[in-house]
TrEMBL record:
EC number: 4.1.2.48
Name the UniProt record assigns to this protein: L-threonine aldolase
The family this protein is said to belong to: Belongs to the threonine aldolase family.
Organism: Paroceanicella profunda
Keywords: Lyase, Pyridoxal phosphate
Highest taxon above the source species: Bacteria
Lineage per the UniProt record: Bacteria, Pseudomonadati, Pseudomonadota, Alphaproteobacteria, Rhodobacterales
Amino acid sequence: MWFSSDNAGPVAPEVMAALAAANAGYAASYGADPLMARVTAKIREAFEAPEAAVYLVSTGTTANALSLAMLCPPWATVFCHRNAHIEEDECAAPEFYTGGAKLTLLDGKDAKIAPESLARALSFTGRGGVHNVQKGALSLTNATENGAIYTPAEVAELAGMAHAEGVPVHMDGARFANALVRLGCTPAELTWKAGVDILSFGGTKNGLMGVEAVVMFDPKKAWEFELRRKRGGHLFSKHRYLSAQMDAYLTDGLWLRLAASANAAADRLAEGLRARQARLLHPVQANAIFTAFPRASHKRAQQAGAHYYFWPFNQSLEGPDDEMLSCRMVCNWSTTAEDVDALLAAL
């Protein structure tokens, strides 16, 4: 009963097979392998972006931080939600890789930026000329840290506001596949057609061993990204092992099937929690569930071997049994109906 994180899930067997196949013999290094050429072609086709520059890195933090470094100079700020991953969980990596750019934290329900919050920040930033931090970039997380999803129209509204002020747009898509299959739109509709300039295209949380793609829809700064990736220590020499994962991920719609499986498990869990009068704290739109139920149920679940995080973390199993405690439960591609039902039975 592992619901702590989709990072805790296994690697998809198709991906393991691709890694084994890539391990046979020799291949060119540093991204010059034939598999990387296939990855680039597949991403360009999936996103209807024939000129896009595509690069692979090993972690989501790297993808986000290097992407933002491309968009935001040291004297500017990145506009993001106050619960964004780049704010809460990346140990100031964006600030480090941008050379010291600031993060301006915005508000909005379910970790989605409210348009009025962005409007206020855009009008306030840089008002004093050289004395102030300047407008740098906008970063959107889809799906958000609270499991909610931006629609293409919502992305377009925020991106339009940013572009009107000369601010480029980054999307943290660690769970992009989960958002996409829920919405039923195309990758292009959720990204560049809605105004996204650079996408961190996630794979690690959705069945890969450890690889993310940076998709630059405008390739003009591709060489700069290559230099930043090398200088930052994130250019893999045995790059084919990154390429093999992403190539398998993009073959025959595997990435979409894995995400759909995780979303379906989350739906089943949410339905069961509702039937047990648990409180759902955010919409269940991707593969994460934020819920609250009595301490006694938490005790039963954890004694039965369930793994999940209290959310926020500073809660304890010590105290009155009827006190409501909140938690986060995350399903992954391998979560089965039996896993979900076992957790519900334990509760």
